[in-house]
Every structure is written in C-alpha cells, then in structure tokens.
Amino acid sequence: MKRAIRRRRLPFVLIALLLVSLASVGGVSAHAYSASYTTLELSKSETALTYAIDELSVMELAGGDEDKNGMLDEAEFESVKSRLGEVLESKITLKIAGEAQKPAAPAVLTLDRKGSGTQAVYRASYPAPVSGQPASLDDQLYLNDTKSNYVNLVTIKYGKQTSTSALSGGDRLWTLLLTEADYASLPDHPPADDGSVPQTDSGQAGTEPQGTADKASDGGASPFSGWKSFFSLGVHHILGGYDHLLFLFSLLIARQSFKQYAATITAFTVAHSLTLTLTVLGWIDVPVWIVEPLIALSICYVAVENIIRKKVSRRWVLTFFFGLVHGMGFADILKEMNIPSNQLAVNLISFNLGIEAVQLAIVAVLLPLLLLLRRSRHDRKVMLAGSAAALLFGGIWLAERVLSL
Question: Are residues 26 and 91 in the same domain?
Fold first, then answer.
C-alpha cells in the first residue's frame, strides 16, 4: 500500500521539481545567455583579433550601469573600459606555437550601437602565426558561472579560406594547425579595418576546423569537421532558453491522447525547424522586438487555454503557429554569424539536431510522468497549478519585453 502511494506521488514531486528548477535557474529572465563574436585574421605580419560582446555581458563583467537603466551611455562605458579590457585579456588567450601571446600594442575598446543591439568591440594585434605550428584561441569567460550559457562564435580568415566554430560549454579551445601551404597563401598584412563588428563572408568558401580541445584542424578539413561544436551550441541554446522549455511544458501538461501528443510535438518540431532555416538563410527577417514578446505571449496563451478548457483538441494547429515564432527566436544567435555558404547546411542541421535532442529527452522524461499522473484524481489540480505557474512566468516575461521596447 505504501509503495503504491509513493508511486502515485512520484509524478507530482518530479513535475514540481521541474517548475522549481525553471524558477530558480531562470528567475524572471528568460535568456541567461551571452553571445560573443570573434574574428581572427591571419597574415604574415600579425594576427588581428576582433572580439564583440553584448552590452548586458559588459555590465555583468565590468559594471558601469550607474543610472540602473539597463544600458551603457558613452560616459559609463568610458568608466569601465580599463576594467573590461583587463577581464578580456585575462580570460581570452591567443596562443601561437603553444605560447600564450600578448597584444603587440594596447588594445582598442569601443561601443558599437549599429545593428540590432549594442556591443563592446575589442580590437588587438598579436604576433604573426608560424608555418607548421598551431594557432589556438582559449576562451575562459563565464567558465565557472553556472547561470550563463555563454557561447563564442569564432570566424578565422587565413588566405582565401574562412572557417567557423561555436565554442560553448566547458570545452572552449579552438585550434588550427597552419600548414606550409596555408602559410604561403597568407597576405603580408591583414585587410584594413573598416570598423565593423565581427562577421563572416557568407559567399566565401572555406573549411571548418574543430571547435574542440583534443583535435586540431590541418587547414584542409571538410565542412563536416566542426558539426559537433554547432550540435553542442544547439544543446546549450535550448537549455538556456527557459521560455522555450516552459512553452513545451505548457503544451504537454494538458490531458491529451498519445496520438495528440505525437501530433503536437511533430508540429512544434516542423514549424520551428522551418523558420529557423528561413531566418538563418536570410529569407525572412522578423525583428527581435516582435519575436521575443510573441514567445512570451505563446506561453500565456497556452497556459490560459489549459486553465479554461477542460479538453483540448487540435492543439497541433496552435502549436505549429507558435512554433514558427519560436524558430525565429532559435535563429537569432546564428543569423548574427552569417556562416559561409559551404558550411551553412552542416552547421544549421547540427544546431537544429542539438535543439531536437534536448527536446526529445525532455519529452521522454515528461510524458511517462504525465501518463502516470492521469491515473490520479488530482490530475486536473496539478495541471491547473502548473499552468498557473507558466502563466505567471510568461506574463512577467511578456511585460518585461513589451516595456523594454
């Protein structure tokens, strides 16, 4: 009897733990996410590094927001430039032939307000690469911060080749073994700096070295060689997207048949994969200030529907519509990178597979619990409580995003 009671309580406890974990990890911020963009341009005279990081991360790393408005003006940025430079130089290490390098001249830090958001841009000149020796970038920023899903999207240009890699998680060492042929193709000097934020040339052919610590590219690797780094990026991106996870939870917690669950999950997968692809390809471009509030609204809508309707039907239709919106949210980090065309398909598929792997794992854990919960007389009470919690968080995120417009 006691064992049966404990078994019936198990889904209640685990679902409660899921909601508590979302609340404690996510707080009222839906994206504890920090993205940086690095470009390395190799020449026979120097290695030019350009590193751009978002404004919020600057405030987390160096402070400066004296008026507490969530933004940095020029005076506030000037007051923290020195501190920010010290942090970046201590956490981001460029190695040539296994030796850590220092900038040949003082680095330049500027605040860039072009594009969709404000970034701090760090530019520095390092010693030139050595023929037949590895060049590597080691990023230790946010390494011990469990609340930040940090990623560094790296582009390296050497000769006529362009490579990309996504450094995330605990393994953030990027290595390139520069062959004699690669070295011979390098220009004598890097291109003149036009002041732009790091971005790759989408029309340029290239190869993709490994974004891992235990492997190095020889400069002739195939576009498939870096798929793991983008798969990992997809995994970390969805794990840091608490609003996406809460939307998925809200969809599933309502009583449905197994067939309905399958249709709902399939609709969400197809829809977000579609707009993720179209957005990264540049075929659609919906501003983030529209997408982010709609994502929060989708949580509220589904939660309210769970509460006011005793039976849901044809949920896959609604899920498909909102899935289109979530796909544009997933794409935001990749569309800023402008990946070279010959690597785009592999990197995009790998990124999406990383997202799908996490979603399927969550569904595999959650569905048995929900099916077990259906046998309990407290089924609807748990669903109402879970939906109310989702509505609360979704409402907070919606208000934050609308007020920040």
Answer: no
Angle at which helices 55-62 and 74-91 cross, to 10°: 70
CB 49 within 8 A of CB 123: yes
Tell me the per-residue pLDDT of 312-367, one tens digit each, with 9 for 90 and over: 888 899 999 999 999 999 888 777 665 667 778 888 899 999 999 999 999 999 88
Evaluate whether residue 161 is within a structural domain.
Answer: yes
228 falls within a domain: no
Interval 159-198: pLDDT, tens: 888 888 888 777 788 888 888 888 888 898 877 665 555 5
Rounded CA gap, 244 and 254, in Å?
Answer: 17
Q: Are residues 320 and 334 in the same domain?
A: yes
How many Å apart are CA 329 and CA 375, to the nearest integer? Answer: 36
Name the strand (E) or helix (H) holding 299.
helix 288-308
Residues 44 and 26 in one domain: no
Cα separations (Å) of 181 from 158, 178, 216, 219?
Answer: 11, 8, 16, 9
Q: What is residue 158's three-state secondary structure?
A: strand
